[in-house]
Amino acid sequence: MGVEQILQKLGLSEKETCVYLALLRIGLAGAAKVAKETGLPRQTVYSLLADLVKKRFIDQSDKRGVRQFYADPNELLRLVAERKDELEKQKKTLERELPKLLAENKRGGAFPVVQYYEGQEGLKRLFENILTQHKGTKAKSFRGFGINRFDGGLEEYIRGFIERRHSYGVTTNLLIADAPDNFGIRDEQTALGRNVKRLDIDEQEAGIYFVGNRAYFFSYKDNVGVMIENQAIVKYLKDAFDVLWDGL
Questions:
Q1: How many CB atoms lie within 10 A of CB 109?
Q2: Can you spell out the DSSP letters for the chain?
Q3: Residue 196 needs a FRET pair 20 to 30 A away by CA distance; which of 118, 170, 190, 206 works?
Q4: Nearest to 122 by CA among 210, 213, 219
Q5: How far apart are CA 130 and CA 135, in angstroms?
Q6: CA–CA gap between residue 202 and residue 150 (Å, rounded)
Q7: Are strands 224-229 and 113-118 parallel, antiparallel or unpaired?
Q8: pLDDT value of residue 134
Q9: The whole model's pTM is what?
Q10: Measured distance CA(130)–CA(164) in Å, rounded
């Protein structure tokens, strides 16, 4: 990401970004010089400079009655750090308040929440959603009907997903077909928290995962997925999985 993109993510318009970068290049300058540097009308530049001062991106001083402006790069770094701290505070507030809001949800979970995912990028979002459940809550157990082989163009991503899941302290119970696999499990270290049992079925091209109150259905063959969030539905599926797991 370039400096222009960073500035725009910090809230500057395209023209404000142009003026700011011009000040960085030429140093202390008046509006006329900035207008010449950017090719923008002088009146427009005056307005943009005033806005940048209000937003604390640049400083203003007077020299013999002429306003001069200066962009301090250290101030930009400070603004980025300040914005980062503010976002971290907002994240903590959301982590604290969202469970309360969900608990007060008058629907009471009567209607399942359903999300659809399509394509390889869609499946990646599905798996990132799973990791969010593990990282942001106490959901440290993972049950699943898995596949035997990583293919379909997501091999490296899925291996990274498994490693990150394990880093969150998640224990995995995985049922797969009684067929060759490429999990690479040789010992406890390479297992990465995965306990695998075999089903007497043909090798599958789809999987089902259970995390918290969510069930994730996906197909590597078709690059599609669905997430269903409903406590009663997922509890039934988990209980059925546990009976099958204990019987093997």
A1: 14
A2: --HHHHHHHTT--HHHHHHHHHHHHH-SB-HHHHHHHHT--HHHHHHHHHHHHHTTSSEEEEETTEEEEE--HHHHHHHHHHHHHHHHHHHHHHHHHHHHHHHT-TTTT-S-EEEEEEHHHHHHHHHHHHHHHHHHSS--EEEEE--S---TT-HHHHHHHHHHHHHTT-EEEEEEESS-------SHHHHTTEEEEEESSPPPSEEEEEETTEEEEEETTTTEEEEEE-HHHHHHHHHHHHHHHHT-
A3: 118
A4: 219
A5: 9
A6: 16
A7: antiparallel
A8: 84
A9: 0.59
A10: 11
Rg over alpha carbons for the chain, rounded to the nearest Å, is 27
Length of the chain measured in residues: 248
pLDDT tens digits for 8-60?
A: 888 889 999 999 999 989 988 889 999 999 999 999 999 999 999 998 888 88
Instruction: For residue 215, count other CB atoms closer than 10 A to its CB.
Output: 22
CA 188 to chain CA centroid, Å, is: 30
Per-residue buried b or exposed e for 159-173, using 16+ beta carbons within 10 Å of the residue's own CB: eebbebbbeeebebb
- Distance (Å, whole) CA 224 – CA 122: 7
Structure-token match 């509006």, residue found: 31
Could you give the CA distance from residue 160 to residue 219 in angstroms, rounded to a whole number? 19
* Per-residue pLDDT tens over the stretch 102-114: 665 555 456 788 9
